Amino acid sequence: MAPGQAPELIDTREQDYRGQRLGLPESGPGSVSPVARRVIALAIDWLAAMVVASFFAGYGSDGYALVTLAIFAVQTTALQWLMGSSFGQRLTGVAVVRVDGRRLGVLPLVGRTALVCLVIPAVIWDKDTRGLHDRLARTVCVRR
């Protein structure tokens, strides 16, 4: 893909397993992570953000939900950039990697996390179970 070119949103190539089009193995480390692991990781990250937010905003206060969302976004983006996975992803054996194998950049991760926070882009998947947030950031969640 040429620099500045938008990622292809519809890929019609046939494949035998998730991630084959991306050059990923069928199973084991480096293969596309199961959706259940990613959902559990998301729940762990959200609970961690809720705990931290309760110290800042007080559980149930008016600003609690926004503080939780902000903490979730910051911790997810920072940890994925620094370590390749958030707290919950690390516990569930998931990593976020770029499709082209290069290092994760901060700006694509900020955009990816913003789309996760909007929810809808994260639940619209392709054949590889990559949400719109992953497609636009050119990332994929793989097994560690």
Task: Describe the protein's architecture and organization.
The protein is mainly alpha-helical and 144 residues long. It has one domain (28-143). It has helices at residues 35-57, 64-83, 87-92, 106-117, 132-137; strands spanning 94-98, 139-143. A two-stranded antiparallel sheet has the order 1-2.
Major sheet details = 2 strands, antiparallel
Q: Tell me the number of strands.
A: 2
Quickly count the helices.
5
Task: Supply Rg.
Answer: 16 Å
Helix content: 40-55%
Q: Helix/strand/pairing class, anyone?
A: mainly alpha
Report a brief summary of the structure.
The protein has 144 residues and is mainly alpha-helical.
Entry keywords:
47% helix, 144 residues, two-stranded antiparallel ribbon, mainly alpha
Topology, pairings included?
Layout (H helix, E strand, L loop, with lengths): L34 H23 L6 H20 L3 H6 L1 E5 L7 H12 L14 H6 L1 E5 L1
Antiparallel strand pairs: 1-2
Helix pairs in contact: 1-2, 2-4
